[in-house]
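README: folding subset

This subset contains proteins for which both the sequence and a predicted structure token string are available. Records are stored as plain text. Below is the entry for DUF5597 domain-containing protein (470 residues), shown exactly as it appears on disk.
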Amino acid sequence: MLTPPAGMSSYVPPWVAKDTDRFPRMLRREDGKLEVVNALSVVAGEGALADAKAFKALMNHLLQVDQQRTVIMVQVENEVGLLGDSRDRSAAADGLFNLGVPDKLLDFLRSEWDSLHPTFKVIFAGLHSVLQVPAASSNRSWAETFGDNARADELFMAYHYAHYVEQVAAAGREVYSLPLYTNAWIPMPFEGDSVGESTIASGGGQPGEYPSGGPTPSVLDVWFNFAPSLNFLAPDIYAGDYGRVLSAYSHRGQALFIPEQRRDEYSARRMWEAIGAYGALGACPFGIDSLSVSESAFARHYNLLASVSTVVTRARLRPESIFGFYFDEFKSADDDRPIVKLFNGLELTITRAFVFGKPGPAFGLVVELEPCRFLFIGAGYKVQAASTSSTAVFTGVLHAEEKRVVDAKKGLLETGRRLNGDETHSGAFINMANVNPDYGDVPIPVLFPARTMIAEATFYSLDRSQVPGS
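--- output ---
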């Protein structure tokens, strides 16, 4: 990698680091002065050529030695962008910034305006009217076109970073066409997050506080268009509203993948939302190699997901038939909002599992196997069903079984035990308990603990016409 990992070029070989004629550095403004940054320029020098040559050699090496195809995708660079300023202040960068904005960028924004990410259209709300008059937007500098501000700087950097990464990615794809992606250090607070959200893992919410020019939501479309050799752009998520980030990076229907996130239980629970609700290819904890299996919060989650992976893959062929979710540690009932999901005539309400003591955290997937029949995966939640028919007067559990995996590869399950009576609250709901449910002060063991964390249930409804006097 010659471009900045996490905003800096710390992985370059010594001969690159010392040769500033071939590999010039970026400059940033600090306290009114320009200072040299440990980041190679993406607008001048031979960095892109050298990086592309090295990446091509790497991909060729993989092609030759990885006969078992262990490597299934490759990340190109790491969290690219400039830290400490909103754009490169070198003479080469200033020259390009003061020239007219490239016509291919203006033409792209003009033709694709309606499909651009909402964040971009909010930031550059006044741009649309300008773009409608090509003569008014041509031969104007970046500042004249987009404003003399950090967001214009970020757009400038994104345009050039995308071109740089495209040159590298295209070179690798020439010899070995594995899926390729680039990851993003996302702003924090993220869109819609509270201002008080922790920024330890992000730096802040302004370009330069996070790497300016990286594939963040406001410039995703620029990256999509000018780095077409990448299959998708991936967010690293350490804080903020997990679901909101997933939604932002599902833009234009691109594949969703989380290459970095926290490695604790808090993060592992969120994986189920990514897999079930957003169809993510995967969610990966950063630093997992420095934990033993017994220490890793992800171990049980990955084991469970692996055991039902065929079932999940089949369900995702019908995206409306699968849903993923989580609940964090319980704070107060006022903070808990039920999750409501519609499936073919049934409204499912998902809340924390029934307990006598303190409710616990939860995670899970709901898979509709056929109308009124569902597979429930996970722990810590309960599901109640209600018919959407205006004439229905009752809905309950008709049949429920705990399942265990017989053949994970084929997706075959068998019944471990029938659930009834206390286990379904006499047919009122499906209770996917935690491993150690809290009994509080109640001495009667009517709560069955999670074992396989897989259950199947069929619901039924009665119509008013079936119940005289109703």
